[in-house]
Write a structure and sequence with these properties.
alpha/beta; five-stranded mixed sheet
C-alpha cells in the first residue's frame, strides 16, 4: 500500500508596514503646530525686601505710614491687617478681616490716606476706564494696553501723578501657600503697583501673640 504524503502548509510571515503611519503623524504634528497657538507664560512681578547692609533703616521705610498697609497671613485661613506700619506696643492696631471683595479687598479700596485721598480706588477706577477704552478701540494692541496699565499702577492718571499705596505682605510659618497666593491675587485685582513679601520678625510674632492670633 502506497504511503500518502502529508502536505505541509507554508507559514506566512505577518509584516506591518508603518511607513504610512509615520507620514500621518508628521501631518498631524504639522497641522497642530499651524492651527494652535502656544500658551503664553503668565508671570507675576514680586518685590522682595533688600538684604543690602549699606542701606540705612530709614531709607527702607521712606513710604508714608498712611500710604502703607501691612497684611498678615496666618494659620487657619485667617488674615489680619494694620493700616500703616505696625505699632508693636499697641496690639489693637491689628485688625481682622476676611478674604474676598467684602474683606481685604474692601479694606484696600476704601483706605483713606492722611491727605484725604483713596489711591487704590483711584487706580482701580482708572483701570476700569482703560478696560472700557480697550473694548471700544479694537486697534489697541496688548503692548499698548500693558504700557498704559503699568503707568496707571505707578500713579500716572489723566495727566497727573498721584502717590500710590505700598502693601507689605507677611505670612507666618503655619499659614498656607494658597492663602499667600490669594493675597497676591488681591494685589492684581486691586491693581496695586507696589507690594512686597516680607519675613515675619520677632516683633511681628510678639504682636500676633499679644493679639491672641494663632500663628
Amino acid at each position: 500500500m502506497a504511503k500518502v504524503k502529508k502536505s505541509r502548509q507554508k507559514k506566512q510571515q505577518t509584516r506591518v508596514d508603518f511607513t504610512p503611519m509615520v507620514d500621518m503623524m508628521m501631518l498631524l504634528i504639522t497641522f497642530f503646530m499651524l492651527c494652535t497657538t502656544l500658551a503664553k507664560p503668565q508671570t507675576m512681578e514680586l518685590s522682595m525686601p533688600t538684604n543690602d547692609k549699606n542701606i540705612e533703616d530709614d531709607d527702607k521705610t521712606v513710604t508714608k505710614a498712611s500710604y502703607t498697609i501691612t497684611i498678615f497671613v496666618t494659620a487657619d485661613n485667617q488674615i489680619y491687617y494694620v493700616e500703616g506700619m505696625p505699632k508693636y506696643d499697641d496690639p489693637t492696631c491689628l485688625k481682622k478681616t476676611t478674604w474676598g471683595k467684602d474683606g481685604i479687598r474692601k479694606v484696600l479700596t476704601g483706605h483713606v490716606t492722611e491727605d484725604g485721598t483713596q489711591p487704590i480706588l483711584e487706580v482701580r477706577t482708572a483701570k476700569a476706564k482703560l478696560d472700557e477704552l480697550r473694548e471700544k478701540t479694537p486697534t489697541m494692541t496688548q503692548a499698548q494696553y500693558d504700557e498704559r496699565l503699568k503707568a496707571i499702577k505707578k500713579g500716572d492718571i489723566d495727566g497727573k501723578h498721584i502717590e500710590t499705596m505700598t502693601i507689605i505682605i507677611k505670612a507666618t510659618d503655619n499659614s498656607s501657600y494658597l492663602n499667600l497666593v490669594d493675597a497676591l491675587d488681591e494685589m492684581q485685582i486691586c491693581s496695586v503697583g507696589k507690594y512686597v513679601i516680607d519675613k515675619i520678625n520677632d516683633q511681628d510674632k510678639k504682636l500676633l501673640e499679644e493679639a491672641h492670633v494663632k500663628e
